[in-house]
Amino acid sequence: MNKKESLFALVTITVILCMLLMAGCDNNTTAPPASQQNTPTGQAPQTNPTNNTQANDALKGLTQQAFDELTDILKTAQTYPVFDPSGPAYDIRAALSGKTWLTIPLGTNNQFTLGICTMMQEIGKKIGMDVKIWENQGEVSEWIQGVENAPLLGANIVDLVAGPNPYYMVAQIEYLQSLGIVVQASHFSDVVQDVDHVTTNAGAPYAEGGKLMADWVIHKGGADVNVVILTSDDVPSAKIMCDTIEAEFVKYAPNAKRVYTNIALIDWATKIEIETLTAVQRDKNLDYIIVLYDPMLQFVVPALEMAGVQDKVKCLGYNGTPFVIDWIREGKVEMTVGENLDWIAHAIVDTAGRHLSGLDVPKDTKIPLYIWSVENAKEAGIPAEYSTGYGDVYINGYNQMWMLDK
Q: What does the pLDDT look like over 154-209, one tens digit per residue?
């Protein structure tokens, strides 16, 4: 990882320290014994008297039904995403043309959130909307300043992108709403979660990301896979991701060993490496380390290499961050669940457009996920780039849904 990527990853940690909500994964808690959990869905393994050993090796202790279901799920997630309309077609220009959109990202020094915002500016050019980006370094006080300055900037929509917590600016948000300004939270919570205090919410598929990571590990490692999950309870999406991961293990591999280790964001740089080393020393049979967010991998990978277990203990994450995709290509990481930033930007604009058109705003923003592995990592570019390798079917899809082709 070069100096630029290291700086970006460390900055990511710093600027998301303010994303504080209660979450539900206990520190270093081990899942309950199999006798206290639900049994896996499906029939008992079907044996072939003439080739029983070979069949069992292929299934790795999973039932045939479970193995087949997981195979189908992962195959779909490794296929180019298709466009699924979030609702009926409408004239987005009628809703947003001439409007001013103020986007306040987690931090303009965070390439993930800045990338979303700059792509929203390009969308604004297509529909006649002025998109302004509030420069900030991820401080709560800077987010509040952005919200307070919205009327002076002539904003009709204020969008809190991927981190600014509405909880810290309730009075300011209520004032904007009293002026008729739409306040939206975007990529802050899962699609099934509500966000208080805002006008609209454009959620992200965090739970689905957790599900895919668990499915990958179970499919690759089998019914008795041994895994550590590194989480950060102070990140809004952590609880629902942990809940979904656990549900997949209960469903498909209740006998798998899983240990959930909570590491606060402020401690990532000092504790993730230590916790990783402790995990591999404590359990010589460890197979996988799942991290909830890609930037955590910058500390996991060196620890595995330091312990000399990088070829035995595999790791994976969520976000599709370019440096992680590069590491996949180099064999240091096994998989990441990726998101297309341009697709996210379209979904965010669509949420506000539907609201201002008087249409129902569905909770599901229809942002797809795409699994990056050694099989397709080169498609993201060398070196990897954001929004590369996801296909472009969504562009025509949104143009038609927004009636831009008329």
A: 999 999 998 889 999 999 999 999 999 999 999 999 999 899 999 999 999 999 99
Residues 280 and 349 in one domain: no
Beta-carbon count within 10 A of 148 CB: 14
Residue 57 belongs to some domain of the structure: no
234, 293 Cβ separation under 8 angstroms: no
In the numeric block, the tokens 């004032």 are attached to 175
pTM metric for this prediction: 0.82
CATH number at 256 reads 3.40.50.2300
Q: What is the mean pLDDT of the chain?
A: 87
- Residues 304 and 42: their CA atoms lie apart, in Å, by 36
Name the β-bridge partners of 260. Answer: 29, 229
Whether residue 271 sits in one domain with residue 170: no
- Give the separation between CA 301 and CA 375, rounded to whole angstroms: 20
* Cα-based angle 183, 187, 192 (whole degrees, multiple of 5): 95
| Cβ-based neighbours of 132, under 8 Å, separated by 6 or more | 100, 101, 102, 103, 153, 155
Closest CA to 230 of 250, 253, 207, 210: 210
DSSP 104-144: EES-TT-HHHHHHHHHHHHHHHHHT-EEEE----S-HHHHH
- Nearest-angstrom CA–CA distance, 325 and 120: 24
pLDDT score, position 24: 38
In this prediction, residue 47 carries a pLDDT of: 41
Would you call 371 helix, strand, or coil by DSSP? strand
Q: Is the alpha carbon torsion for 55, 61, 62, 63 positive or negative?
A: positive
Cα 315 to chain centroid distance, Å, stands at 16
Report how many domains make up the chain: 2
**Are 184 and 248 within one domain?**
no
Domain enclosing residue 276, as ranges: 19-34+63-77+207-338
CB 34 within 8 A of CB 255: yes
Residue 228: its H or E element: strand 226-231
Structure tokens at 284: 């010589």
Amino acid found at 225: V
Please name the residue that has the structure tokens 């790791």.
315
